[in-house]
Amino acid sequence: MKIKKITLFLLINSLAFMTACGNNKINETTAEAAPVIDNFVEAFGIVKAGKLKNITLDFPATIKSIHVSDGQKVTLNESLITLDLSNYNKQLQDIESEYKIAQLELQRIQGGEGPSNQKESQRLKNELANKKKALNNSSDPDLLNLMNELNLAKNAYEDAKKDYEKQKILYNQGAISESDFEDMKRKLEHSKNNVESLNLSIESLKNIKQKEINELEKSLDLTSANINSSNIGEAIQNQKINSLKSELDSLKEKINKTFIKEDKIVSDIKNAVVYEIGYQEGDIIDQSKKVLSLLDLDTLIIEANVSEEFIKDIKIGSKVDIILLADSSKEYKGTVSKISNMAIKENGETVVPIEISVDNKDNFLRPNFNVDVKIYK
Q: What region does 188 belong to: left with phi over 0, alpha with psi -120 to 50, or beta?
């Protein structure tokens, strides 16, 4: 019995020793396995257009009709907006007529048939007095027209404010939907913008009239000088002609744009998306506010932020895999084209902005799509 116990004890010890040796070998094998190192850096990015064009106008015009909507894709020379150019055309015709009359007057002066210095001086004084009176009393026809429009716009704005307050009470009581209330807010904002736009147009017209007065005062100063009357008349007329010519050329140049065809604003980009239309039909264009923007779809890039600890692993020319969140089955190839020389803070983390060109763009890729990128070291 004692021999059996000793034998059993030795057998258990042998098994324990063999198990311990086996575990040591497994641990040694695990410790000796080489660590797996990724050969790429991951980041999150957004699709952006490398080229964005803001369409602005610096001449009088009104929105007649809008043919596109925000987010719509357009092609080269496609019509976007039709303009009412009646005010612009009238202004152009008035200056052209005045310019031709001034040239005929110069011919008469050079031929010795021009008015005397005294008559010219009196004419300028009368014209100057009339223009000053018209400006001070706001009796100029163009100014009166704009001021009448402003009064109507102000009344419309006051009515819109009253309607808004009524709608606000109804909305708070749950009597109308949020959509109806938002429509009322947009109408109020539109009325306010119309008043501001007309105020700017009035100030702009007043400045033009003041410039005309300044030019007349200069001409009057010349006639008052003690020089030969014929030379004075010719000098005055040449000055007037040059001023009108400059004004005429400037006005014509304002409409000589690649995005304007006759009375239409068109796309001057081959493959674009309309973005941020700032007006509605019937609006008077504010020269300080853009009409709309165009995103060039042929210049799409990826903007991404790389954590500062990984920026050392990438360089200009690094290859990139681009995976769209909109369709993960689509895979695009790209190349790092730009690395910012300055880091920024984003959500408490220090990152470095980079840009990635897309090698195989297609029609599915859209601005502001979210993407995951793998940047290979």
A: alpha
Q: What is the pLDDT of residue 122?
A: 81
- Residues of the chain short of pLDDT 70, as ranges, are 1-37, 112-117, 225-232
Residue whose entry in the numeric block shows the structure tokens 């007057």: 105
Q: 3-class DSSP state for residue 7?
A: helix
Q: How much is the pLDDT for 262? A: 93
40-49 and 300-307: which strand pairing?
antiparallel
Q: Look at the alpha carbons of 197, 265, 279, 151 in this order and tell me if their dihedral is positive or negative.
A: positive
266-281 CB burial, b ≥16 within 10 A, e <16: bbbbebbbbbebbbee
For residues 88 and 254, give the distance between their C-alpha atoms in angstroms, rounded to a whole number. 10
pLDDT at 20: 46
Contact 300/50 with Cβ under 8 angstroms? yes
What 3-state class would DSSP assign to 265? strand
Q: Residue 26 has what pLDDT?
A: 38
Q: Cα dist. 322→177, 311, 318, 368, 375 in Å?
A: 43, 18, 13, 14, 9
Helices of type H across 173-228: 178-224
> What backbone phi and psi angles, to 5 degrees, belong to 317?
100, -10
| pLDDT reported for residue 321 | 97
Of the candidates 215, 156, 144, 163, the residue with the CA atom closest to the CA atom of residue 191 = 156
**Which residue is associated with the tokens 């991404």?**
304
The residues, any chain, with a CB within 8 Å of residue 160's CB and separated by 6 or more, are 187, 188, 191, 192
Beta-bridge partners for 276:
none
Q: Which long-range contacts (C-beta less than 8 Å, at least 24 apart) are formed by 106-110?
A: 106/234, 106/237, 106/238, 106/241, 109/230, 109/233, 109/234, 109/237, 110/234
How far, in Å, CA of 294 to CA of 187, rounded?
26
Residue 262 and residue 14 in contact, taking contact as beta carbons nearer than 8 Å: no
How far is Cα 373 from Cα 305, in angstroms, rounded to an integer? 10
Backbone phi, psi, residue 113, to 5°: -105, 10
